[in-house]
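Reply to dn_fold:

You asked what the input looked like. This is it:
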Amino acid sequence: MPKSKVENDIVEKQKIISSLTLMDDLFMKVVLQDKECTEYILQTIMDDSTLKLKRQSLQKNLSNLHGHSLVLDCLCEDGNNNIYNIEIQNNISGAEPKRARYHAGLMDMHYLKKGNHFSQLPKSYVIFITANDVLHGKLQIYHIERTIQESGKPIWDESHIIYFNTSYVDNSPLGKLAEDFHAKETEQMNSDILSKRVALLKNAKPNEKGGKEMNVLLENYRKKALKEGIEKGIEKGREEEIIAKQKVIQLMGLLAEHGRIDDIKKSSIDQDYLQSLLLEFGL
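and this is what came back:
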């Protein structure tokens, strides 16, 4: 007996859910709604098992009236008032160093209140978790600090940028975390904290809390795919428009060479006649 549309939708949804990993930015944001998961990831990357968060915000909008605004994947603050921006970056273009610089600058702008002294800026960390070795140094982790070129000594401005390359896997805590970021099955994950959260989300029934979160996630994926499809369609339309204009320009040149001035005039007001001329010249 053939499956109903509802049954097919459930099967399709389950396929999508089972294929998700922590490197899927939308799925990662759902996982990080459990603050314990965010803490574990930061503890591992920062090599600090005592790190505890007092607050976090997902999809945090940092507006900029004078330039480019940002929506941060995860913005959080620990018990010592240090701030962290965690970004999942699968594409090299999304993880370029100037982007990290901009994230750090906009965070500073939002955290330094009017009338406060610059010394009150908190210690900040922009952390890019990348699918590939974006900086091409064949390293698992990169700590980027400002230094004095002449002496090689660091400037302690307390602004830090970290790149965590998840394509590098070994038996270290970082290597095991990198493996967890790419695992589709919870049985393949090393961290109990992350695997329990992922299992709850992937195995939850639609009417349960985790299931409801995944329904929202799938809807967000649908909207994202629709938006990307529209953008690609617009881009394709622009390309086709440019090609069409180039063909018309080429046609006008050929008609002028053959002294067919009347055809140029007529084709400028008659689209059907223009198309017939394009066919005539094989354009």
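The longest helix spans residues 209-257.
Hope that clears it up.
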